[in-house]
Design a protein that fits this description.
By secondary structure, the protein is mainly alpha-helical. It folds into 2 domains: 4-96, no CATH class; 108-181, no CATH class. Helix 3 (28-35) crosses helix 4. The chain is built from 12 helices and no strands.
Length: 183
């Protein structure tokens, strides 16, 4: 069964059937015509339709932090006969994966691009807990890099809920300076 959040960005049964048929050796035009007959009505070609399905699966894999599956799904068509089983297994695996959510104990480089994570780590902040406890107490210009403050690089919808969770974690574990735990 597909998790509810995955169902929204996962191709439908007909789209997967067309993709599976193509991987099994059916011609691209025949596969799309048989399983997605109305998809080419708007002037889209069969390769375009299958390309969109493959990109949709690859995007899902990237959101699930599985770049290896995205690369497998987007491999060139010339590699198709060699990788049929691996791609089918990847699609089945993607069906059950859910998009991970940040935890305060995660490393900053897992969720932030290197251009943002590197300066943050240089300031001694290794986890999201370190970041969420410290960011709201900093002045907006504290980490100004190229005219951007730390508040501009960390999404506001994560900062405040994550800050309170991190602070409660710090106070429960009694880690860090007392001034942080008592806030």
């Amino acid at each position: 069964m597909i998790p509810e959040e995955a169902a929204q960005d996962f191709p439908g049964a007909a789209a997967l059937a067309a993709l599976r048929a193509w991987y099994a050796g059916m011609g691209i035009t025949d596969a799309v015509a048989q399983y997605l007959p109305h998809s080419t009505d708007a002037g889209r070609s069969s390769p375009t339709v299958l390309g969109e399905i493959r990109r949709q699966l690859a995007d899902r894999a990237r959101r699930c932090r599985r770049d290896d599956l995205a690369q497998l799904i987007l491999q060139p068509a010339s590699e198709r006969p060699k990788r049929v089983r691996a791609v089918m297994a990847a699609i089945d695996l993607l069906r059950g994966l859910s998009v991970p959510r940040p935890l305060v104990t995660d490393a900053v480089e897992r969720w932030l691009p290197a251009r943002i994570a590197n300066p943050i780590q240089a300031d001694g902040l290794r986890t999201l807990a370190d970041l969420t406890v410290r960011v709201p107490s900093l002045r907006p210009t504290a980490w100004a890099r190229g005219g951007r403050s730390s508040h501009a690089v960390w999404p506001a919808r994560w900062v405040f809920p994550a800050t309170w969770r991190a602070r409660s974690l710090v106070s429960r574990l009694r880690i860090g300076p007392p001034s942080i735990a008592s806030r």
